[in-house]
Amino acid sequence: MKASRVRIQGISKRFGDLEVLRRIDLDIEPGKLVCLLGPSGCGKSTLLRILAGFEPPTEGTVSIGGRDVTTFPSKKRDIAMVFQNFALYPHMSVESNIAAPLVMSRLSFLRRQPLFRFFSPSAQKIRREIRERVVETASLLQIDKLLKRKPAQLSGGQKQRVAIGRAIIREPLLFLMDEPLSSLDAGLRTQMRGEIAALQKRLGITTIFVTHDQTEAMTMADQVVVMSGGVILQSGSPREIFEDPAHLSVAKFLGSPSINVLDGEISDGLLRVEGLSFRVSSGAADLLVKVGIRPEELLIGRTQPPDAPSWRGKIQRVENLGHEALVYLTIEEASAARLVARVASDFVADPIQPSDTIFVMPRASKLKVFKEDGRRHDIAVKQPPRSQQSVLQAAR
Amino acid sequence: MTMLSSPRRPRDIALREPRGLMLALPAVFLLVGIFVVPIVIVIGVSLTDYNFGDSGAGFVGLRNYREFLGDPTALQALWHSIYYTLIVAPLTLCLGLFIACLIQARERFRHFYEIIFFLPVTSTFVAMALVWQFLLHGRIGPINEWLVRLGLERIDFLTDPEYALITLSAIGVWQLVGQSTILFLAGLAAIPQDIYDAGALDGMDQGWDRFSTLTFPLITPTALFVLITTTITAFQVFDSVAALTKGGPGISTQTLLYKIYLEAYQYSNTSYAATLSVLFLAIIFTFTLFQLFVANRNVHY
């Protein structure tokens, strides 16, 4: 199988005064499934269109499999793409749709003209070979019964498979997908998510996948590239991105419910957050900071832990999701900041009432500290002296 | 009323709800009075020997229709209309699509070109005929000046029986091409960019490949519509004949509609004009039926 390295160097794109991409550098290992993740308008689709050759970059180079393809037209790049709305050729049968890339690349201009095939045995032979490949590809995707249909007669999931078939049939160096799951309904989306990831692993084709859906990114990708405002905020494995976000926006974008963000301050070697103090690694300069705490890193309990810092909170709302529960609460002490905690659902099985007072203890080592401009502040936050797990319900 | 149960056929509802029929009556009355009655009258008149100004008329059956079959000038007029249509409709279709593709490919000045090509449609032809008459004049026309300068012979575009109908056809294309260009532009704009992008990756990125595998198949519904509407319009040619040649020289540019006009208003042959009108209506009606039943079903996606 062909697996190729993709290297994006210093790509910028401006539309008039509008700068959509700013000096993007990205290196993609052969055979990886990479996900460009970001809110709409972050430039991820533009980057994909530049890779496909639909838009020229204002600056920078793109190389695929060691070739600099920056100035190549799309068809010379040896790439395939699945579009958001599939972009099947509506007037062609499923078979012709899947065959189209091979017909165009393997038959000469003269040989593909409609009448010519009757005069050329070699053209007929190539067409037979193409047909075999189409049937092979279609059965791989379980659409071999649909070959005679027109796209209008297919369901969303079937269209998706045809679009994938058309893309993989010529074994491209690079496979692009622009929000391919967004036009499917929820159940099908989950199913196709798994199928696409499995297919990608089987074929081993380097794949770049654009989405704004964090679940798709986390479940499918080998490498997640989080973009915002035309720059890459962070690139890494799904776990790295989630556990160790380099930017507050990355932390906010991943995880549901979203990470809790509180104002904090570093002074005299202590991190102070809403009335609590934690020890930080020595030598940290005094600074105003933002502190992120994931909902699952908050421990809550009915009694105050004697020697660990905890907030006194008031429950506003409890959402019981069955296997877990989300507890929305406000901190009583300082600015009445809102928090959400994710706890095991048996915790709320106790008669816990809105407006009950509880104690909230953040897991100090999991606190993520960001500078005011959103970048991660690289300091370690120390555990409180003794953890009080016995009086606190474990959060997960 | 228990209307929520099973859906009933409209006829059943009409029979059970006479009030509904009553409410529909004014509209039915107007439709019949404006569209159906005049046609019935024309058909009626075509079966008589009525001449304009006569105090009475006698029923003559199909005599007028037999007369048409034996009237070389009328058959000539019918042929001229067909000839004109056979030139104008295909040329308008191809030229309109060609111009639309050229305009579509432009990013700047698009609106400028759209307006330029649409101008003939908006202008009154009888006024524009003045310009054509001057341009094509055998003695003083600039086009003949150019022909002479190129070392060619002068052509009496509008007064030579050999050229007159072709000249009118060319003017007909000029009149109609704007309309078809605009329709094709709308059709082209409806093709999603994604399809062209997918085509670019698959190797159909420009020129004939893109046109023959993507653009043309996707534009066929528009093309059929344009073909049928221009055919109908071309078959109804009248104003350029009336303004430029008056059917002449001789009867070389008499079209069916102009012949009807002559019979009805110049010769006061009302019943014969009615006969030709029935024929004319029948032909247009056939085109319309074709559009309704064939073209609309021929959209293959």
UniProtKB/TrEMBL annotation, chain A:
It holds the Pfam family ABC_tran. Gene3D superfamilies: 2.40.50.100, Nucleic acid-binding proteins (2.40.50.140), P-loop containing nucleotide triphosphate hydrolases (3.40.50.300). One of its GO terms (molecular function) is ATP binding. The keyword ATP-binding applies. SMART domains: AAA. Residues 6-254 form the ABC transporter domain. Keywords: ATP-binding, Cell membrane, Membrane, Nucleotide-binding, Translocase, Transport. Signal peptide: none annotated. It comes from the Bacteria. Belongs to the ABC transporter superfamily. PANTHER family: MALTODEXTRIN IMPORT ATP-BINDING PROTEIN MSMX, TREHALOSE IMPORT ATP-BINDING PROTEIN SUGC. This is ABC transporter ATP-binding protein. It comes from Mesorhizobium dulcispinae. The lineage of its organism: Bacteria, Pseudomonadati, Pseudomonadota, Alphaproteobacteria, Hyphomicrobiales.
UniProtKB/TrEMBL annotation, chain B:
It is a multi-pass membrane protein. The chain crosses the membrane at residues 21-45, 82-103, 115-135, 163-191, 211-238, 272-295. It is found in: Cell membrane. Its main location: membrane. Coiled coil: none annotated. Keywords: Cell membrane, Membrane, Transmembrane, Transmembrane helix, Transport. Residues 78-291 form the ABC transmembrane type-1 domain. This is Sugar ABC transporter permease. It comes from Mesorhizobium dulcispinae. The lineage of its organism: Bacteria, Pseudomonadati, Pseudomonadota, Alphaproteobacteria, Hyphomicrobiales.
